[in-house]
Recover the amino acids of this structure.
């Protein structure tokens, strides 16, 4: 059939979409060729199928967020003043009402209920609305929805808040402070000595330690509560002596491993130093060094780490949209990662190429919520704002690098931004310099 013949068979179908708030009629003109279906047959069988198709069109790591947004929207529609059980019947007013509803909806936390009066944050509301507009647009494009009502609804705006989520260099250093390294290394080494239990470590005083040829003895309470001498190897003994040399109070009755108040460590404090302190310190350091997203960091395997000349390394990150990037790491961060790997090897954990870099207590990959809690705890110890999160380190990396004259395209690549305009935001939030500095006032 020639083009002219097709054109002669086209008629225009007009329909009206009426907004409930203003009553304004929007005329939608759709050219339809005679004998040709107005929908793409069988692209989606029902709303559930549509949502599945849409979610699966997104990047793997983003899918849970998109599925959650769709659930919020459909739950709202079902319980709305004018219940809607079919996405094809959604009107502009329904979407506008949903946007208003989000301003009072409490958030969903994975491990705790929402606090009284707590509501979804402005940025989260914006992301949810943009996701629903994407769903409606997708449904219209594949012919399942007759109209894309999202195209005529403007989502909520948000104030620029990135500048409030950037730490100073001094604050980052406080956050990265892993505590006294000599103490941490010594307690981890001593915990690997046979017959030394957690209760022994918390009760150990300098008077319980005696030097011997090729190491030393630690006198601890045995099963009968009588002192028993446990032999300490030369390497571990050397760490204990190095700790003693830099300890201000090292009298016979002073604890070998004091807490911040000067008293003996509690059992949980000792357990943290032995099992997770090194991991947590390496995680926070890597987050700042490579500007990785929390989901990218907890998914790392040792095969994603590669050493380079000079004792430094690179990390392979898998980000949004299934895109990957290599980011160079400074020597200080690389040393932390390799020390953690060696410690895990000594403790009998799997450190092969497929093993997780940041392991959970069960041996698998660390959960994102656990990684988030690590940064929260580190921020509390450093006296930083309660809202400090892993993503703040990403913002801080970008801001500090650009302030040190790093090329914007390199920062873009490190952050994994698709559009350099996203990275440009960090160029305009430096309050240390302004055009007003050049005025004669």
């Amino acid at each position: 059939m020639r083009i002219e013949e097709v054109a002669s068979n086209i008629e225009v179908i007009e329909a009206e979409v009426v907004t409930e708030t203003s009553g304004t009629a929007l005329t939608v003109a759709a050219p339809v060729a005679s004998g040709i279906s107005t929908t793409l047959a069988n692209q989606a069988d029902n709303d559930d199928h549509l949502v599945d198709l849409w979610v699966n069109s997104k990047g793997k790591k983003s899918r849970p967020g998109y599925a959650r947004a769709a659930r919020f929207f459909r739950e709202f529609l079902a319980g709305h003043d004018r219940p809607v059980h079919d996405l094809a019947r959604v009107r502009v007013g329904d979407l506008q009402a949903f946007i208003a509803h989000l301003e009072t909806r409490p958030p969903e936390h994975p491990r705790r209920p929402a606090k009284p009066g707590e509501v979804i944050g402005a940025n989260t509301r914006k992301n949810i609305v943009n996701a629903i507009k994407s769903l409606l647009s997708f449904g219209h494009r594949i012919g399942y929805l007759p109209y894309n009502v999202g195209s005529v609804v403007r989502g909520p705006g948000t104030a620029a808040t990135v500048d409030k989520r950037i730490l100073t260099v001094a604050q980052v250093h406080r956050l990265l402070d892993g505590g006294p390294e000599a103490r941490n290394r010594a307690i981890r080494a001593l915990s690997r000595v046979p017959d030394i239990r957690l209760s022994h470590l918390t009760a150990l005083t300098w008077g319980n330690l005696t030097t011997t040829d090729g190491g030393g003895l630690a006198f601890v309470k045995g099963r009968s509560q009588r002192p028993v001498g446990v032999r300490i190897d030369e390497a571990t003994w050397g760490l204990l002596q190095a700790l003693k040399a830099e300890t201000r109070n090292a009298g016979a009755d002073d604890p070998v491993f004091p807490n911040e108040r000067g008293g003996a460590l509690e059992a949980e404090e000792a357990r943290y130093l032995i099992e997770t302190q090194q991991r947590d310190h390496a995680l926070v350091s890597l987050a700042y060094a490579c500007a990785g997203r929390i989901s990218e960091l907890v998914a790392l395997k040792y095969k994603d780490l590669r050493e380079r000349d000079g004792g430094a390394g690179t990390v392979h990150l898998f980000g949004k949209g299934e895109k990957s990037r290599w980011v160079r790491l400074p020597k200080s961060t690389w040393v932390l990662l390799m020390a953690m790997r060696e410690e895990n090897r000594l403790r009998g954990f799997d450190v092969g190429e497929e093993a997780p870099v940041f392991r959970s207590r069960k041996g698998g990959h660390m959960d994102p919520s656990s990684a988030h809690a690590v940064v929260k705890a580190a921020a509390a110890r450093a006296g930083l704002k309660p809202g400090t999160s892993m993503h703040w380190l990403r913002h801080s990396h970008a801001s500090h690098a650009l302030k040190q004259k790093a090329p914007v395209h390199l920062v873009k690549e490190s952050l994994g931004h698709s559009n350099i305009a996203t990275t440009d935001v960090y160029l305009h939030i430096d309050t240390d310099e302004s055009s007003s500095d050049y005025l004669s006032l």
